[in-house]
């Protein structure tokens, strides 16, 4: 799939998301558990703000000197015998990768999770030439087996599916006969995929960070799938967004630490693998041939603009896990593989305002996203800037602004909208309420709730209460 | 053999242009960073305190820890392998194993017990992979061990196969106590020093923290998704 997912319009997608109660439960559950783990992982450091400032200064320095570091990276990869291809567009990248696949006469590709390959629609491009492409990350594998269901979360792509749905998919497509216990499901995927690793001709990966000074790059997983993808096939192709690099190993470790703490609250995940070039001459495992494909696809247009800081992103998804709107509407509502606050900033920049002009309005501008961002991207400011650009360009805001603002109870212009808005407000604020007080508000509310509790939106709307009162309802 | 680089100039010129300047021709000096929080983590911990930090974190990542001495290593390792159900066992070919007195266990004791043992030797080619894929236990040695995250660091070479730590059902890492450092910061510095000394960094560096796992189905933790189901670290106190 490309960056865009689905053909429904924004309000239909949102409507679907809001009505999907399992998905909403899963999203809020994930936000709560990952959010709490993230908080523990950053608080135990004691000086998380200092870490964030360091993360920010590293990422800003790299962006300011991006041409130099990419030159250094590619020189060092070539020195180690690897090949580097710079692709301005998805077409250029796909053509090059297809060329490598054809030259190798490859029939089977195993892949570890990579957002940038989703962005350029690589799988479809390879399937077109008769190549079988197998996703190996468990979540991605589930989605792929289910006829390419789109991902809904950057880190937990199959979050919107429950175990019963996964069992049904496996039963129907893979002849699976066991229970919906995640352990048994994962065991089945393990057995299927083990054979694929051993028989694949090419391994394709994304890139969490490249290291310019040594021509290395790092892959971060808990499953270990990236390690098998990069050690068993004879040819390896790694695809990276052009901004995903650091000067040296010293900055690499800082950003890897921040990525995993922010993403899932882990000090480090089970596997961080740093690879440099193809295997050494006498090595038995590891690829004989290594290709790095560096993708622009609209990123360079963001450089030098007021949106440059969005390229600091390290794809941890902490902003998704903190966002009250994401909690409410789920990942698919964004219509882009990049969802949540980062998706609402990035998707219009990469995919254009025509496609994504509603996304900057899928935000309360509460600032919770900016506050959790490990590299200090001012996400809610950028969302606000998007709105300014859109209004200047179009002369008015897209209609969804009104709807969404009302949906969060931020206005009462029309009775109908007010009704909808106040209906949604209690569930939108749900993450942060205990009893009837908001004890841990998002963003700017936090400063307030740190010292006092903010009254939560009433579970019972006043007009409902008033109506019920006459019928002898709750009179409290 | 040197690799190829394609389409670079147009691509980088475009970046420079968007940044509003010409291409950078002189090497960029990495700035003196204003912040350095990573250096402070566990910086005052003693060696023994680091061991305690490591052990405590192992509990959180489903990893068993055994502490022994060089003299007790053979017994401890044999016991750990037995606990995992015995062979087949695959190890790196590494002279440290014999220095630490494990040759007899590997080459005599285990074969005599009928335990299938294989040493990863590059001259055996793909047979190494075939054995590792069927193996019950993989055993490797940690070069640096990160206390904070309970991570072993492995450096690949021709006789230290990458997949020894991934293909077998269970995994055992030998951890010399002297390899324990506070966190990833120190290991990264070592790798950088290697490069600055004019040497190549290894083609594959693995930072491994416990067994393979996933939470992709309803965020429930599942252990052993693609790699090992179980992991044990054996800390050797006098090494």
Automatic annotation (TrEMBL), chain A:
Keywords: 4Fe-4S, Electron transport, Iron, Iron-sulfur, Metal-binding, Repeat, Transport. Residues 385-470 form the Lactate utilization protein B C-terminal domain. Signal peptide: none annotated. [4Fe-4S] cluster 1 binds at residues 313, 316, 319, 373. NCBIfam families: LutB/LldF family L-lactate oxidation iron-sulfur protein. The keyword Transmembrane helix does not apply. [4Fe-4S] cluster 2 binds at residues 323, 366, 369. One of its GO terms (biological process) is lactate metabolic process. The keyword Iron applies. GO terms for molecular function: 4 iron, 4 sulfur cluster binding; metal ion binding. Residues 70-295 form the LUD domain. HAMAP family: LutB. Gene3D superfamilies: Alpha-helical ferredoxin, NagB/RpiA/CoA transferase-like. Is involved in L-lactate degradation and allows cells to grow with lactate as the sole carbon source. Has probably a role as an electron transporter during oxidation of L-lactate. Belongs to the LutB/YkgF family. Residues 310-377 form the 4Fe-4S ferredoxin-type domain. PANTHER family: LACTATE UTILIZATION PROTEIN B. Residues 431-452 are annotated as: Disordered. This is Lactate utilization protein B. It comes from Mesobacillus persicus.
UniProtKB/TrEMBL annotation, chain B:
Residues 52-236 form the LUD domain. Gene3D superfamilies: NagB/RpiA/CoA transferase-like. It holds the Pfam family LUD_dom. GO terms for biological process: lactate metabolic process. InterPro entries: FTHF_cligase-like_sf, LUD_dom, LutC, NagB/RpiA_transferase-like. Belongs to the LutC/YkgG family. Is involved in L-lactate degradation and allows cells to grow with lactate as the sole carbon source. This is Lactate utilization protein C.
């Amino acid at each position: 799939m490309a960056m865009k997912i689905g053909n429904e319009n924004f309000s239909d997608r949102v409507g679907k998301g809001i009505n999907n109660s399992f998905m909403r439960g899963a999203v809020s559950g994930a936000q709560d558990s990952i959010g709490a783990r993230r908080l523990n992982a950053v608080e135990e450091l004691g000086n998380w703000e200092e870490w964030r400032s360091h993360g920010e200064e590293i990422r800003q320095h790299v962006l300011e000197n991006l041409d130099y570091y990419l030159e250094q990276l590619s020189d060092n990869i070539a020195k180690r015998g690897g090949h580097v291809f710079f692709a301005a567009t998805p077409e250029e990248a796909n053509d090059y990768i297809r060329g490598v696949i054809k030259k190798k006469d490859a029939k089977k590709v195993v892949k570890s999770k990579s957002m940038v390959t989703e962005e350029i629609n690589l799988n479809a491009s390879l399937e077109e030439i008769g190549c079988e492409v197998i996703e190996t990350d468990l979540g991605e594998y589930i989605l792929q087996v289910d006829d390419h269901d789109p991902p809904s979360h950057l880190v937990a792509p199959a979050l919107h599916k429950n175990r019963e749905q996964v069992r049904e998919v496996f039963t129907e497509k893979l002849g699976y006969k066991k229970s919906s216990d995640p352990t048994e499901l994962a065991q089945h995927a393990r057995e299927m995929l083990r054979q694929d690793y051993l028989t694949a001709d090419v391994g394709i990966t994304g890139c969490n960070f490249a290291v310019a000074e040594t021509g290395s790059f790092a892959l971060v997983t808990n499953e270990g799938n990236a390690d098998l993808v990069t050690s068993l096939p004879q040819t390896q192709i790694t695809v990276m967004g052009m901004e995903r690099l650091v000067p040296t190993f010293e900055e690499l470790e800082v950003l890897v630490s921040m990525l995993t703490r922010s993403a899932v609250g882990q000090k480090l995940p089970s596997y961080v693998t740093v690879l440099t070039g193809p295997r050494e001459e006498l090595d038995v495992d590891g690829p004989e041939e290594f290709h790095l494909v560096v993708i622009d696809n609209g990123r360079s247009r963001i450089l030098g603009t007021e949106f440059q800081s969005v390229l600091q992103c390290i794809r941890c998804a902490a902003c998704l896990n903190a966002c009250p709107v994401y909690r409410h509407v789920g990942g698919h509502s964004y219509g882009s593989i990049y969802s949540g606050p980062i998706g609402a900033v990035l998707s219009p920049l990469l995919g254009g305002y025509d496609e994504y002009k509603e996304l900057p309005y899928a935000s309360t501008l509460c600032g919770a996203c900016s506050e959790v961002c490990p590299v200090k991207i001012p996400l809610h400011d950028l969302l606000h800037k998007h709105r300014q650009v859109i209004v200047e360009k179009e002369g008015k805001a897209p209609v969804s602004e009104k709807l969404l603002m009302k949906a969060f109870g931020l206005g009462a212009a029309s009775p109908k909208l007010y009704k909808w808005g106040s209906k949604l407000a209690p569930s939108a604020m749900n993450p942060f309420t205990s009893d009837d007080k908001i004890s841990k508000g998002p963003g700017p509310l936090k400063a307030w709730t740190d010292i006092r509790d903010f009254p939560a939106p009433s579970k019972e709307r006043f007009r409902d209460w008033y109506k019920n009162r006459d019928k002898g309802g709750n009179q409290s | 053999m040197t690799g190829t680089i394609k389409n670079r100039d147009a691509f980088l010129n475009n970046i420079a242009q968007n940044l509003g300047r010409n291409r950078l021709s002189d090497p960029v000096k990495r700035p003196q960073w204003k912040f350095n929080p990573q250096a402070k983590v566990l910086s005052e911990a003693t060696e023994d305190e680091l061991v305690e930090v490591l052990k405590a974190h192992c509990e959180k990542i489903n990893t068993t820890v055994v502490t022994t001495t060089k003299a007790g290593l053979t017994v401890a390792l044999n016991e750990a392998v037995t606990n995992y159900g015995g062979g087949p066992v695959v190890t790196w070919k590494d002279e440290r194993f014999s220095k630490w007195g494990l040759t007899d266990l590997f080459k005599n004791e285990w074969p005599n017990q009928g335990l299938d043992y294989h040493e990863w030797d590059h001259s055996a080619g793909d047979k190494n992979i075939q054995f590792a894929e069927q193996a019950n236990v993989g055993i490797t040695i940690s070069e640096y061990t990160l206390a904070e995250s309970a991570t072993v660091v492995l450096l690949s070479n021709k006789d230290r196969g990458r997949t020894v730590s991934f293909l077998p059902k269970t995994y055992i890492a030998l951890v010399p106590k002297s390899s324990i450092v506070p966190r990833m910061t120190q290991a990264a510095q070592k790798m950088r020093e290697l490069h600055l000394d004019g040497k190549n960094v290894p083609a594959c560096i693995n930072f491994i923290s416990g067994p393979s796992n996933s939470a992709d189905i309803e965020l429930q933790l599942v252990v052993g998704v693609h790699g090992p189901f179980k992991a044990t670290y054996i800390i050797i106190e006098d090494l």
